Amino acid sequence: MTSVDQVKSAAGTATGSTPRAPGGRGSSSATGGSGPPASRRPRNGHVTSRRIRNRRAGKWWTPWLFLAPALILFLYFKFIPMASALTMSFQDVQPYLGNRWVGGENYATVLSSDGFREAAWHTVVLAVGQTLGSMLLGLTLALLMEGQGRKLGFVRSAAFLPVVVPIAVVAELWRIMYHPTEDGMLNSLLGLVGFGPSGFINDPDTSMVSIMLTGIWRGAPYDMMIFLAGLAGVDRGLYEAAKVDGASRFQRIRHVTVPGLRAVLTILFILAAIRGLRVFTEVFLLTNGGPDGSTEVVMTVIYKLGLEQNRLGVGAAGAVLLFLATLLLTVGVHLFRRRGNE
User: Fold this and answer.
1) For residue 100, what are the β-bridge partners?
2) Is 275 or 7 the better-scoring residue by pLDDT?
3) HSE of 37 in the Cβ direction (CA atoms, 13 Å)?
4) Contact, 239 vs 256, CB < 8 A?
5) 3-state secondary structure 256-313
6) For position 57, what pLDDT does the model report?
């Protein structure tokens, strides 16, 4: 080894690196650092190819594996029955005897029925009343219970109880409170303020309003919780600015709170309207469409046609029409909101 090579070797040892082998190969960087060799550094191409290999190996279906139980339940208990109902709506369903194709005859029977048209009108009235009433009461409760206090949390939990209580229990409680005699709970309260006893669900003039009040009482707490979530996103600075400008509480609600809850109002309107159009259990348990058909709704008509009169094809046609009405309402609200945003 020459003196020049000895000097280079000593310099390389002092800097903590090893001398390069012929051909430019070495274990250290050009600056003498202690980083990993270039051959061991990950490259984007290697990462991409590894992801592709993982997908081909079957890892892409791992999320679907977790979703499979829920998807199977939805498929078996929701989508397959919906497809079966659509098929049955064009058939004369005869269990154990074979179905006969009748085309649109079932739809013509439903649409030409006086009872179905009257039930459809009752459904619209009930849906409008329950939707507006539950949203208005829910917004009022949300404004009263907005805050972070511990007592408010307890009150909000207590107010939400009607939503988690089974609807059959709710209907039974209200049926007891609606007892038409003077000893009934609500009639006793009316007697304290000088009003006579009312028939409530036993009177054709008040039965629809009575069922509407039951639906509002049960739906308002649900709307309240969604309104509370929406109020958390309203800018508090706007309230302070409006207060400095001399706006009253009602004006702050009108010009600050309501515009800030526009998206929430749209969602709640759709949910409440669908809930009102599909009302069945409370009507069935409280009045079963009576008295004298004053509370007959579309769902009770479908139930009686399909299960009591064994006209499954006609009942399926009514169910399809109700689904189309709900779909049109949802799409119409979305289009109206999009046009308003533009």
Assistant:
1) 92
2) 275
3) 8
4) yes
5) HHHHHCHHHHHHHHHHHHHHHHCCCHHHHHHCCCCCCCCCCCHHHHHHHHHHHCCCHH
6) 55
